[in-house]
Amino acid sequence: MDENDYVEQFKKLLSESIKKNVKSKNIEMAFSGGLDSSVLAKLFVNLGYDVKGYVAGTKNSKDVRQAEKAAKEIGIKLVKIILSEKDIEDAIGVQGKIIKKIYDSIELKGKETNDNLTPNAIPISFNLPLFFVAKNSREKEIFVSQGPDEMLGGYKRHGKMNERDAVEEMKKNTEDFLKYGVRQNLETARYFGKEFVMPYLDRDVVNFCLNLPYNMRINNHRKCILRKLAVKIGVSEEIAFNQKRAAQYGSGIIDVMKKIAKKKGHHISAVVREKIDQIKPIKR
After folding, report:
1. Using one digit for the tens of pLDDT, what is the confidence trace for 42-60?
2. Which tens digit of pLDDT belongs to each residue from 132-148?
3. Which of 32, 48, 195, 278 has its CA at 20 to 30 Å from residue 73's CA atom?
4. Rounded distance, CA 21 to CA 3, Å?
5. Model pTM?
6. Helices and strands (H, E) in the chain, number of each type
7. Hey, which CATH number is domain 3-277, 3.30.450.20, 3.40.50.620, 3.30.460.10, 3.30.1360.20?
8. Strand pairing partners for 79?
């Protein structure tokens, strides 16, 4: 297969994944305006679906500004969920409790104990943008664009490794995300009576991505094949080649969490523990 064949096959598999998961012409999705969500939104539009995107972030955060720009370009509706400090502070404990419920259910081997799996600021802040999307969306099903970073070398560390180590790391990251990260996302949606649908994590798409040649994943840019697909389906090069920060940073959420901790005179980890302890066990 040449480069164009790989891109065409990727487009075909993603389109098939979308078609077998949609139940209506009206689509709601988490939309930060980055590469991953923009490709998904553009595929929806090209397939004839009516798309409404949701972006969660603090006022004037990078994600909100980027989502506004990308939604206008792609031609989708956009709902902006502007978060206050109180919104984020109130959500920390709930999201932490959701994650703790998952950690408590994980069977560990050897000398590891579940006490070592304690929700901290990183998974909580990573999940909070989707927490607010699930809370505010109207439809039960919400499409999310999880997966490309793990499968296609989206993290900076992937680009710093030699080819063999990077390929192994992508495989491990994908396996770990499917085991832990996806469960956190799904449980977060379930807390609000919603369901997250993840077209990138369809089995055929995952197998395709993890068996791609290295240079279709990392080659001048990380997530190379996804950027080429973006341009092919009509996403501007500005969006396709934009280097977007992770959701907890682009949304402004982690900065607010640090601000809350500073006001209380504690480390952010102490604030997280305090907020989790204030929430009753989640039974859903």
Report:
1. 999 999 999 999 999 999 8
2. 999 999 999 999 999 99
3. 195
4. 28
5. 0.92
6. 15, 7
7. 3.40.50.620
8. 54
